[in-house]
Write a structure and sequence with these properties.
By secondary structure, this protein is an alpha+beta fold. Helices cover about 20% and strands about 35% of the residues.
Length: about 130
């Protein structure tokens, strides 16, 4: 008898980011659009999955959500998108929320967030702006 391994379902890290942001007092919503039957998603301005704002902090975040393994891919994608520089120049922040299961060897692993901010200075020398 052949044993068939079931494929692990992908973790929806967007829901983890939404919970985190809302717990921090942000009003946050997913702005990424899913194309039915095509398994394709379209991000706002090419790379924002979630928009969140905080009334007291007076800030608006554009958030790209991923796992730690894909942060460098998303940084490249963001820096190749000229509309992100306009987003930042308009006074908004652009961040990557990267999730990974972390913990000591032999112990239960917990989902941990690493935040990487994209700044105007990141665009210097790449020909955008």
């Amino acid at each position: 008898m052949i044993e068939i391994k079931k494929r692990k379902k992908p973790v929806k890290v967007s829901s983890k980011t939404l919970k985190h942001l809302r717990d921090e007092g942000y009003i946050a919503e997913v702005v990424e659009r899913k194309i039915p039957y095509g398994f394709i998603s379209i991000d706002y301005i090419g790379c924002i999955d979630i928009i969140a704002f905080h009334e007291e902090k007076k800030e608006t975040l554009g958030v790209q959500v991923t796992t730690n393994a894909h942060v460098s891919d998303h940084v490249k994608k963001i820096l190749a998108e000229p509309r992100v520089l306009s987003w930042i120049k308009a006074g908004n922040r652009m961040v990557i929320h990267a999730w990974a299961k972390k913990g000591k060897a032999g112990k239960r692993k917990l989902w941990t967030l690493t935040e990487r901010e994209i700044r105007m200075s990141d665009f210097i020398g790449i020909g955008i702006g």
